[in-house]
């Protein structure tokens, strides 16, 4: 722990919807002292929403649709927890969040095993070599056989699995969680069968469970720190977030095994957290977290240096320094002004449109962090105002929401109606909900003649020729970059073959 950043653990929780991720997040915050009441998950109505779900549509539907940041401290370690959207329609925001973490907890439902969204998010982690700790949740309910779950994780994700704890029965036969390291068993208590702190030290287990536990220990690889940090092995913990089983084990595992801040890519260079200069990148922008103040917060993952309140940093998108007077640290839905921050910390920077997703912030403006892409939208819709006099408010709202990464906005070369693009259907619901709730703009979405979009690059001459023949199918994005609006995937392939000097890209890296 020689450098302050070595005490940081910046991690995300990833899962399929309904695997219990929001409950686990709440219990981690409770154990870390960031919140003092765990009744939300048992209460009804508004009280049931966890602290990380604050947006109106999240409260109505009980799902997380935006990535939240929560910081808590325990035993000298600062934990920065990034709660990611589990819904399949939010891969873009989730992907960007996973660029800002050093490790992840993968939550799996014991009754369902690996589900499509879990696998999709795991692949994103693998692309960035993000090490993963697996938490098999809901073992207090009926679930699949333990060995079947372990083998599925190993086979479907091509990972070595190393169980660190083991359920003594499941569902109606659940008798607790065995810790392989100590031989102790955490026991359920009371009518609700919760873990209230009772530990049996090295009990004699019933023969069936003793045999299964022994098989799990000898049949799978021992934990290897290097293999885990390389993304080749996942330690597996069993538990029930709702009943408090396995939560402390997870916190201890993150503290003990998860890597401190890792170097981040900046082109060919890797920027080390030990670098003296303060550097960071914006991976998320969120407007109206506090509707009373119409605020706009840019989330910066600090990569290196010791940040001090009032410092001047240069955003790559602006080119001139800005003073950061009111940097924010997040404690669930509460906030504190940050006087200092270290590599690995996530700080919120209030601003009015100065900072955008993908911007690098640094003292000298001589590096650019890479790896935060925009994705080609899979759904395109025209926006129709109910009240045509609110055009100005709509433009402001679309600008805000596109800067957050909720939507992309395209301005056609011919025609007046703006087109919004998203990667999933639920984002359209979020758009309409937030236009109404936050901007008091009522709008409808109409079918667009276009199915997808591609960013176009090439020589000036090749681009000019292409524009002359395809102007009705061209638009500019909010950065002013040229976009080909395609009516079908066939259309994209046809234009690529017809224009070999141009590149039609499905992603745009900022």
From TrEMBL:
Amino acids binding GTP: 15-22, 83-87, 137-140
Q: Which HAMAP family match?
A: Rel_fac_3
Cellular compartments per GO CC: cytosol
Q: Which Pfam families match?
A: EF-G_D2 (PF22042), GTP_EFTU (PF00009), RF3_C (PF16658)
Start and end residues of each Tr-type G domain = 6-262
The protein's job, in short, is: Increases the formation of ribosomal termination complexes and stimulates activities of RF-1 and RF-2. It binds guanine nucleotides and has strong preference for UGA stop codons. It may interact directly with the ribosome. The stimulation of RF-1 and RF-2 is significantly reduced by GTP and GDP, but not by GMP.
Is ATP-binding tagged as a keyword? no
Record's family?
Answer: Belongs to the TRAFAC class translation factor GTPase superfamily. Classic translation factor GTPase family. PrfC subfamily.
Q: GO molecular function, one example? A: translation release factor activity, codon specific
Give the source species. Alteraurantiacibacter aestuarii
* Keywords assigned: Cytoplasm, GTP-binding, Nucleotide-binding, Protein biosynthesis
Q: Would the keyword Cytoplasm be found if you checked this record's keyword annotation?
A: yes
Q: Give compartment(s).
A: Cytoplasm
- PANTHER family to which the protein is assigned, alphabetical: PEPTIDE CHAIN RELEASE FACTOR RF3
What this protein is called in its record is Peptide chain release factor 3
Q: Share an example GO biological-process annotation for this protein.
A: regulation of translational termination
